[in-house]
Amino acid sequence: MTLTAPDPMRPHEECVHLPGGFDAGVWFIGRIRTPWARREDCPKRGDPENGPECHIEVDAPWLSALAGVEGKDRMQVLYWMHLSRRDLVRQNPCFDAQSVGTFALRSPLRPNPIASSFVRLLRVEGKFLTVWGLDCIDGTPLVDLKPEFGVLP
Ligand SMILES: C[S@@+](CC[C@H](N)C(=O)[O-])C[C@H]1O[C@@H](n2cnc3c(N)ncnc32)[C@H](O)[C@@H]1O
Questions:
Q1: In whole angstroms, what is the distance from residue 106 CA to residue 122 CA?
Q2: How much is the pTM?
Q3: Ligand 1 mean position to 71 CA, how many Å?
Q4: Which of 8, 21, 26, 67 has most Cβ atoms within 10 angstroms of its Cβ?
Q5: Separation between Cα atoms, residue 70 and residue 54, nearest integer Å
Q6: In this structure, what DSSP letter does residue 138 have?
């Protein structure tokens, strides 16, 4: 996936030169289907209690990995914010008088643009999981699915 042009920087933001190579590889295991075509249309955070319904589409090689998912109430979804620039270390999401460090934000703009949401699982139908609680554009690559933590003793 390539970007035509990175998002422009805002006042007080800071970027770095990115390393020449990568330390690990990632397989996208599917994609997320949502009602939102553009980033500006997405909610800032998904709503696991009210939706709207979004669909997680899992690719064929990984379908056996869904065994046991049906019946879970909540899942953690990890996804790849593929439109994000990755070089910002200080950001100014609200056009304030100063910027904030990337690791103090849940911004999608980060060195490894992995997003995480806890979602309510409504149903599983073949390769599709229907959930409430996502906040990404239609077609966003899926990285992983995990059950939400149980209550620890
Ligand atoms: C603030 S992030 C939060 C993501 C996730 N819930 C988290 O906390 O890690 C959500 C925003 O990312 C942006 N976004 C959505 N899909 C994206 C994509 N595929 N690439 C880059 N940015 C995206 C939208 O502006 C959306 O409102």
A1: 25
A2: 0.94
A3: 27
A4: 26
A5: 16
A6: T
CATH code of the region 35-147: 2.40.30.70
Amino acid at 123: R
Domain residue ranges in the chain: 35-147
What is d(CA 67, CA 77) in angstroms, rounded to the nearest whole number? 16
Please identify, by atom number, the ligand 1 atom nearest to the C-alpha of residue 134: 6
Q: How far is the CA of 46 from the centre of ligand 1 (A)?
A: 9
Q: Which residue has 């949401």 as its token pair?
A: 117
The letter for the amino acid at 151 is V
DSSP state of 42: S
Q: 63 φ, ψ to 5°?
A: -65, -35
Q: Which two tokens stand for residue 18?
A: 């990115």
**Among 58, 17, 62, 55, which residue's Cα sits nearest to residue 134?**
55
